[in-house]
Specification:
By secondary structure, the protein is mainly β. The protein is built from one helix and 13 strands; from the N terminus they run αβββββββββββββ. About 6% of the residues have low confidence.
């Protein structure tokens, strides 16, 4: 009887431990909005996501080991799928896809360097560009313009983008 109790206790503990490891949740960040600069003259806004790199092996027409930004999903504010973005513009230049979206609030589910999949609420504004940097190691041109109040950061302090004001 004692052996049965020990066996059941150990089995239960193992199941509990494995379910905790299996059900890891994505990191959810604060909302990111467009930069303060207005760009363009349209009825939509632009989203650019520099997600974690996806390394591909050389193939036909790809003579070197190229890095591509990993694909990501755009969800509505309530989590319904809006679009899956193939995040490779197909050139040798490392550039993320630019996605035109109606103004509004969305969620982006993308791979982040060192954090796996992260969920980032984003605000898309007319004639503005919302940029997310999840690839790690990006050096913002105006790093001094960012502070804790106006930036969204990963737990390690890396800046993801401008904090949404709306």
């Amino acid at each position: 009887m004692k052996n049965l109790w020990t066996y059941l206790s150990l089995t239960g503990a193992a199941l509990l431990w494995s379910s905790c490891a299996y059900n890891q949740h994505s990191l959810v960040l604060n909302p990111v909005g467009p930069s303060p600069q207005v760009s363009g003259n349209s009825t939509t806004g632009t989203l650019v996501v520099f997600s974690a790199y996806e390394v591909t092996s050389p193939g036909v027409g790809d003579f070197e080991h190229r890095h591509h930004y990993s694909d990501y999903k755009i969800l509505s504010e309530d989590g319904k799928p809006v679009q899956t973005v193939h995040n490779d513009i197909g050139t040798v230049v490392k550039e993320a896809s630019r996605v035109q979206l109606p103004a509004g609030k969305y969620r982006v589910a993308a791979n982040s360097n060192g954090y796996g999949t992260v969920i980032v609420p984003v605000v898309i504004a007319t004639n503005r560009t919302t940029v997310l940097h999840l690839e790690g190691g990006y050096s913002w041109p105006s790093d001094t313009a960012f502070n804790q109040a106006n930036s969204v950061r990963l737990p390690d302090g890396e800046i993801v983008g401008w904090r949404a004001t709306e």
